[in-house]
Write a structure and sequence with these properties.
The structure holds two protein chains of two kinds.
Chain A: H1 6-25, H2 28-50, H3 59-75, H4 80-102, H5 107-127, H6 129-132, E1 145-146, E2 150-151, H7 155-177, H8 180-190, H9 192-197, H10 202-228, H11 238-251, H12 258-272, H13 279-294, H14 298-306
Antiparallel strand pairs in A: 1-2
Helix pairs in contact in A: 2-7, 2-10, 2-11, 2-12, 3-4, 3-5, 3-10, 4-10, 8-10, 11-12, 11-13, 11-14
Chain B: E1 3-4, E2 7-8, H1 9-40, H2 47-65, H3 69-90, H4 100-122, E3 138-140, E4 145-147, H5 148-170, H6 172-182, H7 184-189, H8 194-216, H9 226-241, H10 246-266, H11 274-285
Antiparallel strand pairs in B: 1-2, 3-4
Classes of the chains: A mainly alpha, B mainly alpha.
């Protein structure tokens, strides 16, 4: 089903059960944040895992998605589903422009240029006070009513919407990877000159993946803005870009379930260790170092390696 | 009042001065990045953190040990250089065989640890450091007033950049470094201890960042984020200049500082992004950067 192996189907079942049970055990807002960051990380994971490009500027698309949704829902009276859709489209549009600029670059150049482009967006958000609210951000974004009918004010209603969006993105990404398109992308990662000599336009494939990653970041930012009711500068800042890379690395680059597990740990850490203040940053840095030095497969990657199957 | 391009001359010269000062720091930092990248093939994301540590060590030397600015100018780079040597020997050395991106991620983690750790002790607002007495005061140049310390920073930056450029491009030690960059195994077979050379290069590169940090301490507030704010711009400078060219890094650093300063006069909201916009334009026209060889 959907190109899942048996082990993946089994894991998918566990994930579904966990999503259904989680809001009754944990604080629903935290679980929703986990899912938002997991969507965000699925995009970054596509970039890092499928075409081997590290972007240090994913916060640009995440933040723009959040701001667009926040502005449209609060000031233009958009319904939440249209707002989130617009957020995703805004992320994709920005990704198309930046991607066109950067997609020919390799490795560290790619990383540094995406970082610099994200800085432009950050300073834009700082100065465009009328839309973004500058230092204050957009506050009090109403959750509104789905299709104008179903109120999302209760946490569980919002949770249901977030879970549906998460599952849709999850299946979409999985479907893309296992489509003929995904096979070509894989061929390009393995041996780009050969793929080009077979007639595939490598840059176009990479650009599409880049736009898809930006769209997922936009949707994630948009959903998070709806869940939390606020959108601030920290969502467009460099630290958010670092955070999503950490999530992907911790979960396991190129794994299917890695982004969710990584997001779970990173968000839980931020939430439960918040009283420790800046020590959270130190711990995150230490995890970064540990992941690079001894733990490059990540949690899910390591598990998959042990049980000798792709997860 | 004299007007130039419809702006008062003192304002214009003042911004030019600010631009040259910012440019001095861009030049010193991007030079260190270029040296480290050349030999280690690592983009040192912790470079901004090393700059910040350099400033904090300077402050700490004065406030805990009573050691003044002039001694800090030597001691602080030495201490941070030693820290860099240790980092290379214990952590960074382990990842040379991996994809180049892991170096970036590793140093990003190191930067976070250093930055977060100092935030815990000094808060994000930081501490202040006064310029030494000999360099306080203001000089009247006739067309503008120049704070003596700012003049000193520009002078010091030019000397530092010039001597590092000379060291690498014109001396025997520099030739050895360049040879090891080109072909490490061949240089090793000539009896040169290349791993030691690499460790010392990293130490030297971060010591340069620390030296810039000492110079910055009296100018800016000494705070844990001072490096990370600067490093993003410095990365753009490195991309514009092209990797691996020391002279290119220096020239681009000063030039972009000046461009930034002037943008602040004519279109203030643009000053924060002008460097990144220049980067986008340069990339479209010359993908390898202004001074880089084709990648």
């Amino acid at each position: 089903m959907f190109g899942f192996s048996r082990a993946q189907l089994f894991s998918f079942g566990i994930m579904l059960a966990a999503i259904i049970v989680a809001p009754f055990i944990f604080y629903p807002i935290v679980v929703m944040q986990v899912m938002c960051f997991a969507i965000f990380a699925m995009g970054a994971n596509l970039l890092m895992g499928s075409i081997g490009l590290l972007s240090l500027g994913q916060s640009a698309y995440f933040g723009v998605g959040g701001y667009v949704t926040g502005y449209l829902v609060q000031s233009m009276g958009f319904t939440p589903e249209l707002g989130i859709l617009a957020g995703g489209l805004a992320g994709a549009a920005l990704g198309a422009v930046f991607g066109w600029l950067v997609i020919r670059r390799q490795s560290i150049y790619f990383a540094m240029i995406t970082l610099a482009l994200a800085q432009i967006v950050y300073f834009g958000a700082v100065q465009d006070v009328n839309v973004t609210g500058g230092e204050n951000g957009i506050q009090g974004i109403p959750r509104g009513a789905l299709f104008g009918q179903l109120s999302l004010n209760a946490d569980l209603s919002m949770y249901a919407l977030t879970a549906v969006i998460f599952l849709a993105c999850f299946l979409l990404v999985h479907r893309v990877i296992h489509s003929p398109f995904g096979q070509v992308v894989k061929a390009i990662r393995e041996n780009e000159p050969r793929a080009i000599s077979l007639g595939y336009k490598a840059e176009q494939y990479k650009l599409i993946i880049f736009i898809l990653a930006a769209a997922l970041a936009g949707i994630a930012g948009a959903t998070k803005a709806q869940v939390m009711g606020i959108e601030t500068l920290s969502d467009v800042g460099t630290s958010t870009s670092g955070l999503v890379v950490l999530i992907v690395l911790l979960g396991g680059i190129g794994t299917i379930f890695g982004p969710l597990i990584g997001a779970l740990i990173v968000v839980a850490m931020q939430y439960y260790l918040a009283p420790l203040g800046a020590w959270v940053v130190v711990i995150q840095g230490a995890i970064f170092i540990a992941c690079v030095l001894v733990f490059r497969r990540g949690l899910v990657g390591e598990l998959a390696y042990r049980v000798k199957t792709a997860l | 009042m004299i007007m130039i391009f419809g702006k008062p001359a003192p304002l214009l010269f003042g911004q030019l001065l600010l631009g040259i000062i910012n440019g001095s720091f861009y030049a010193m930092l991007s030079m260190g990045l270029a040296i480290i990248f050349g030999l280690l093939n690592i983009i040192n994301f912790a470079h901004g953190a090393m700059f910040m540590i350099g400033a904090f060590v300077t402050w700490g030397l004065l406030n805990y040990l009573g050691i003044n600015f002039w001694f800090a100018l030597f001691l602080s780079p030495l201490i941070v250089g030693a820290l860099g040597f240790l980092l290379e020997a214990t952590v960074i050395r382990r990842i040379y065989k991996l994809d180049i991106l892991y170096g970036l991620l590793l140093t990003f983690g190191i930067a976070q640890v250093l930055q977060g750790g100092l935030t815990n002790y000094y808060g994000s607002s930081g501490v202040s450091y006064d310029p030494p007495d000999a360099l306080s005061g203001v000089l009247n140049l006739g067309f503008m007033y120049l704070p003596v310390y700012r003049g000193f920073v520009i002078f010091a930056a030019v000397i530092i950049c010039g001597s590092v450029w000379f060291l690498i491009e014109k001396t025997k030690l520099g030739a050895l470094l360049r040879a090891a960059t080109e072909n490490p195994s061949l240089v090793q077979s000539f009896g040169v201890n290349v791993p030691r050379l690499i460790a010392l290069t990293f130490a030297g590169g971060v010591a340069l960042a620390a030296l810039a940090g000492v110079l910055a301490a009296p100018l800016y507030s000494v705070n844990p984020d001072m490096g990370s704010e600067l490093i993003n711009t410095v990365f753009a400078v490195v991309v514009i200049g092209g990797m691996g060219s020391i002279g290119g890094a220096i020239l681009t650093g000063f030039a972009l500082g000046i461009i930034e300063g002037f943008t602040d006069v004519f279109y203030p909201p643009g000053s924060a992004v002008v460097v990144f916009v220049v980067m986008a334009i340069v990339l479209l026209a010359r993908p390898a950067g202004l001074f880089g060889k084709a990648a």
